[in-house]
Amino acid sequence: MTKLTAFVIIISLRIMYHPYPVQPDGMLPFASPVPNHEFSLASPLSTTTLSVLPARLLRIEGSIIDHKVILNWVVGENETADQFEVEKSTDGKNFIMAALVFGTDKRESDNYQFYEKAGNQKVSYRIKLINKNRKTEYSPVVEINPNA
């Protein structure tokens, strides 16, 4: 490595990792002042409101149709849902992820569906709802028994 290359690397690292001193007026160097404006998320002229409630599972149903297990679920406050993990278990206790379903940004409520080939044994399913704020909720367990 030449002296010039080493010098350029040292200067680059110094610039990247050196914190800028804060000026007496609270501004960073090279920052342009921004007028102090106050704003709100819902102006008096606005008729829309932002939903801050977490998504919630309203209903889950399961059935076997044409040798397929079909799970349908409905979500309220859907716009705050990020994704759904469909989990299944053959013993009703130990669940593994069978699928990942991404949420839509549809407002209010939305319907979702998962399906897979039905086997010969009883299988339990549940939905793990993961909100955009990373909080989770589990649905009730739905048992599918092809022999019933």
What is the molecular shape? Answer: elongated
Q: What integer value in Å does the Rg equal? A: 26 Å
Quaternary structure: single chain
CATH structural fold name of one domain: Immunoglobulin-like
- Uncertain regions spanning at least 5 consecutive residues: 27-49
Topology (SSEs and partners):
Layout: H1 3-17, E1 56-65, E2 68-76, E3 81-89, E4 96-102, E5 109-117, E6 123-131, E7 136-138, E8 142-144
Antiparallel strand pairs: 1-2, 2-5, 3-4, 3-6, 6-7, 6-8
Structural description of this entry:
The protein is mostly beta strands. The protein has a domain at 56-144: Immunoglobulin-like (Sandwich). It contains 1 helix and 8 strands, in the order αββββββββ. It has one helix at residues 3-17, and strands spanning 56-65, 68-76, 81-89, 96-102, 109-117, 123-131, 136-138, 142-144. Strands 3, 4, 6, 7 and 8 form a 5-stranded antiparallel β-sheet that branches. A 3-stranded antiparallel β-sheet has the order 1-2-5, with no helix packed on it. The longest helix has 15 residues, at 3-17. It starts with a helix and ends with a strand.
